[in-house]
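G., before I forget:
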Amino acid sequence: MNAGRLWFLIALVAATPLASADEKSDKKVPAQEPAALQVSCEFIEIWATNGKTPSVDAALSKALVKRLTAVFGAKYNDYKQLSSSPVTLTKKKAETLKLKKGTANVTLVEIVDKTKIRVTIDFASVKGKASQTQLVDAGDWVATAVQQPNSDGHLLAGTCK
Amino acid sequence: MAIKDIELMQHADGELDERVAVNVRAVIERDADARTKVESINEMTELVRGHLELSSDEIPDRRFDAMWREVGKAIDLEEPVGIWAKISAWFDRYRGHVITGAVSAGAVAALALVLRPGDRDDHGKTNPNVIDVQPAALRSAPVIEELETPGGNGTVLNFEDEDGHMTVIMVTPADTVEGI
């Protein structure tokens, strides 16, 4: 082994732990860190109908579609994404979502155990509205589905992490 | 043409210019006395060389060792004396290797920082505001703590699979003919 290769190997061994030091230091003191004051969420506005042929908007994530079809069964077979709103929630600050139909406000009440959030969602659909406060784990989904007079459904689904 | 003895000796030792050597060789070929002298000089040269080689073999190894130590001391005197001077001399000697190592270390560290997994959202952007996403098996179903559905009826459904939970609040306005 010539000297150049030897020095390269020494540098490789020395630099690798340096590069990961930041990540390791994050793991050392999680208990002392202040809880995150913001969370990132994404809310999807969906219009659901029962059409002649099943149809799912390609923009919708497969995980969400899987759950929607499991919950609604045969009631709806046509899901169209009306809007998608990535939003960063700050504690105690209401955020207004940009929806195609109706209005929605989301407020992060608090972060619990750094793994859950308590969130209030006010969703006013074309017809009908709901206001809810719930405790939800990061990564799980919450949804509100408002039945419309023509049996269509106006849905607002969201997940935070 | 007469030739001097000194020229014969220089010829025997190969010390003559080529131009002069040509003349001397021509004289030697013609002159038997000169040829005899040159042969005698060559024999003397061989005798002296052999004698010197034998003399050097008789010198004990320790004397050679002593001589090399003296040579070593003379070389060391040219080396830097202070610690910083030695470090500086070391860097001078291995400058190329040190630079290679430093550049390699920087490149590896940069690659590792770029390639290490980070917190990224669904759009591939770095997300500094994350809370910990636990494995689905460790999560609990969402809890509806407050629910108001003015002018309608609310029903809560929970769905759970290997990817986690989903809670759906189904709202049916009171004047809607068909309920969910």
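The mean pLDDT of chain A is 84. The helical segments of chain A are 3-19, 21-28, 62-72.

More on Monday.
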